[in-house]
Design brief:
- By secondary structure, the chain is an alpha/beta fold.
- It has a single domain, classed as TIM Barrel.
- An eight-stranded parallel barrel has the order 1-2-3-4-7-8-9-12.
- Helix 4 crosses helix 5.
- The longest helix has 18 residues.
Amino acid sequence: MTKTSVSGAGIGLRQPHYARVLEEQPPLGFVEVHSENFFHDGGASLRTLERARELYPVSLHGVGMALASADLQAGPHLERLAQLVERIEPAFVSEHLCWGSVGGVHFNDLLPFPCTEEALALVAGRIGVVQDRLRRPLLIENLSAYVRFRDDDMSEAEFLAELVGMTGCGLLLDLNNLYVNACNFGEDARQALARLPMAAVGEIHLAGHEVTEHGLIDTHGSVVCDAVWSLLRDVRERGASAPVLIEWDTDLPALEVLLDQAARADRIAPALCGEGARHVASA
């Protein structure tokens, strides 16, 4: 039977772990894949995703729509995504708050933009088109960025809160991205959390980063640090009960490492949300 409801933490499903996950069926709440990797009409990888969908709820995480691009031509991309959504019936569909194309050239990157009223209107309109086509709310992810803009009218957290109010979209709250930005720009991650509507958070990402002499780099290539685990506890205390995804894309470890990180997330989540919750001092 195909599983639909999400209960518990998940992991990003990457090709080196396909065989073991499908054969051993570890106890995961869900798995997540990058949508664009499955836009073709057939083949082994799509069959693998369909098999995974029989075992787990699936989250489709987009990296290529570039919703804030000024001259976006997203029609073909959106149609491919809509076909995949209809085929897989995912638990969640998400995209990044970024731009990535101009003049018909796609940069294959998640680029930041000024958080202005003009950009807000543009992105809100795009989200409306996507949600109408998919017939479901889209989760929008906060971005790790390495620049701030003088033209900003608001913070990213305020921008996201406005998007939720204008479009009815949800949020994919990436706590590692939030922490990386706070450290790099001398900001307070918890103040950013306070500006976000926790009720709109549909999924939470946790990942690792690299510490360099110039700042933190969002690499998705290591275990989640203690400070980010602490932010997860804070989010739970603020009432967000969304499922957690362990995101790991570079220097991929053994499957057991990912499962251990997911289990740690589960030890935090049930204790700090829901009826009869108990406070947990550490995970």
